[in-house]
Q: What sequence folds into this?
């Protein structure tokens, strides 16, 4: 197995100056291990030491935006193609100027997404291409920090000029040390997440200024040392996707397996045809249901003439009208129900009533399995209770009556 050659690129450096900008670099024998002979030098000199090692770039968190999309398709290529249009309204720049990369599909059906300007990607990769080198992976700083799922803590790496925070499996941000308390307060108003702060041996900072529950974790010689120890590719997003994917390099490794792959493809052909027919029928049904849901939404909110992400727009409208009533009444129930519709395909709303502190809903489902999935979805939601009052199956689906009330 080849050694890994890590390079941490700086922020705010123009394309012409990047080759001579100082960077931290060093090699590690395997993933998750400390650097061997870590050094700092201009990027052009650092690349002279890359040799035949795998090159991994760690790029500034401030230049990469993290988001999430929910696309019915499971194929990564289709999710990647749909991501720009789902996120279009959330982005200030034209999506044609942006590069999108996706992470592994999550248990709720969503995919994490990393967004970066194409010109920035070109700027990062240009010094390597000029020397005939190719990066094997490019990861944002925030997703190179440890993520501790079970303990619920956030992780941060603090330097003199910057703090990088990982606030979830695929979320994070960066800011100056002076602004850290403010950013944490905005991200977690309840102060429910303690912060595990990775500190550098060279750092001379007054941590008492950070008004937040802290746990200091020293022992790192540099930021790149911390990233190399904690980066887990399976829990991060490699930005080298789409137009920046390393397909030519992968193809060389793929060639010996082509005969076996051809045989497997022949065996799957018949099953694929049947799947395509079934998928086409299901797509028509989903399209009809989506059209009905959009029509209902536009009746309730006539100003919403453009539909990009129905679930997100329903959630946004409910948040906008709920205001101070968020903690009681009909709006929290409507908000949860909007999320349920977005997460469970195959439901068509017919009627909704609110009385005696509960929502009474009439809807049509494609089959009883949809009702069971809806019941399971609510079983994992705190603060609400779902009661299926009736579910009558017929030739045109299942007529369902539900009661949704605070738990």
A:
């Amino acid at each position: 197995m080849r050694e890994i050659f890590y390079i941490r690129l700086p922020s705010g450096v123009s394309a012409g100056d990047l080759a001579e900008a100082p960077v931290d670099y060093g090699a590690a024998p395997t993933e998750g291990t400390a650097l061997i002979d870590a050094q700092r030098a201009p990027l052009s000199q650092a690349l002279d030491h890359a040799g035949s090692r795998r090159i991994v770039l760690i790029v500034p968190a401030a230049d990469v935006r993290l988001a999430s999309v929910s696309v019915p398709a499971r194929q990564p290529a289709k999710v990647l193609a749909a991501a720009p249009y789902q996120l279009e309204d959330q982005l200030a720049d034209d999506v044609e100027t942006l590069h999108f990369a996706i992470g592994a599909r999550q248990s709720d059906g969503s995919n994490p997404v990393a967004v970066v300007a194409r010109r920035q990607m070109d700027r990062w990769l240009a010094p390597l291409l000029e020397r005939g080198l190719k990066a094997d992976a490019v990861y944002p700083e925030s997703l190179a920090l440890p993520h501790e799922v079970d303990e619920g803590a956030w992780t941060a790496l603090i330097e003199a000029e910057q703090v990088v925070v990982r606030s979830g499996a695929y979320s994070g941000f960066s800011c100056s040390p002076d602004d850290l308390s403010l950013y944490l307060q905005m991200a977690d108003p309840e102060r429910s997440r303690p912060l595990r702060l990775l500190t550098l041996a060279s750092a001379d900072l007054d941590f008492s200024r950070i008004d937040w529950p802290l746990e200091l974790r020293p022992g790192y010689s540099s930021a790149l040392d911390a990233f190399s120890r904690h980066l887990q590719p399976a829990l991060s997003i490699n930005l080298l996707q789409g137009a920046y994917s390393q397909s030519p390099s992968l193809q060389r490794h793929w060639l010996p397996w082509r005969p076996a792959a051809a045989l497997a493809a022949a065996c799957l052909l018949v099953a694929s045809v049947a799947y395509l027919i079934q998928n086409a029928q299901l797509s028509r049904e989903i399209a009809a249901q989506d059209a009905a849901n959009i029509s209902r939404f536009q009746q309730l909110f006539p100003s919403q003439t453009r539909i990009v992400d129905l679930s997100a727009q329903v959630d946004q409208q409910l948040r906008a009208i709920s205001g101070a009533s968020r903690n009681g009444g009909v709006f929290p129930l409507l908000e949860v129900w909007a999320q349920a519709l977005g997460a469970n395909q195959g439901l068509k709303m017919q009627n909704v009533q609110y009385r005696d502190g509960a929502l009474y809903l009439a809807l049509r489902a494609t089959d009883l399995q949809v009702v069971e999935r809806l019941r399971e979805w609510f079983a994992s939601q705190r603060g609400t209770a779902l009661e299926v009052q009736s579910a009558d199956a017929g030739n045109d689906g299942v007529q369902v009556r539900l009661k949704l009330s605070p738990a």
